[in-house]
Amino acid sequence: MTQDELKALVGRAALEHVVPGQLVGVGTGSTVNHFIDALAGIKDRFPGAVSSSAASTERLRRHGIPVFEAGEVQRLPVYIDGADEIDHRGFMVKGGGAALTREKIVADLAQRFVCIADESKLVDRLGRYPLPVEVIAMAVSQVARRFAALGGSATVRADVITDNGHTLLDVRGLDIADPLAMEAEINQWPGVVTVGIFARHRASVCLLGTALGVRTLVF
Ligand code: 5RP
After folding, report:
1. Distance from Cα 64 to the centre of ligand 1, integer Å
2. Which residues contact 96 (CB under 8 A, 6 or more apart)?
3. pLDDT, position 30
């Protein structure tokens, strides 16, 4: 199976986690696009979605799925999203699609985070994938210097402005041995909007697409 077929497999498998009669939190990315397309087939079973990006909102609406603002909702039973890396504890790196801030906001509303990913995303240790960090433009150099002090090399993602109007850094060479501590530390730096380490908002479950089918990891 190709990587895209594995993404489609887990996108369909995630339908089982949609709670009938309840809103569903929807992430962003190519794996989630498969999930949204599958969701269209059961749209009469739930009232709508809370979306994590303009791109997902547009795709949901095209399928006729109502989209609600995060501010209208107090709690979601489940948030379903992809990842750039996930480790064996459910800690993730996210933001490859530049939607990390809204993803963390919607994930924070949810009781469960269901990660959907092809098997290439499962890693023993986070950090091979460049860490996305959304930063307010005037702080870019300052934040890049802080990353250099940790051994990382930050570059501005060319031609990308986030849905929130900010700059995105991709940081290579970091050793993310303690995802919870590193997330907490980077979150304190002035100018950082969101760091793409999802440790406090780690996955509860991961549906991993493999050549043998869907493998379910419970954390
Ligand atoms: C977007 C994300 C995505 O979930 C992540 O980049 C994975 O994307 P894909 O499903 O296309 O591999 O964090 O900001």
Report:
1. 23
2. 29, 84, 129, 132
3. 98
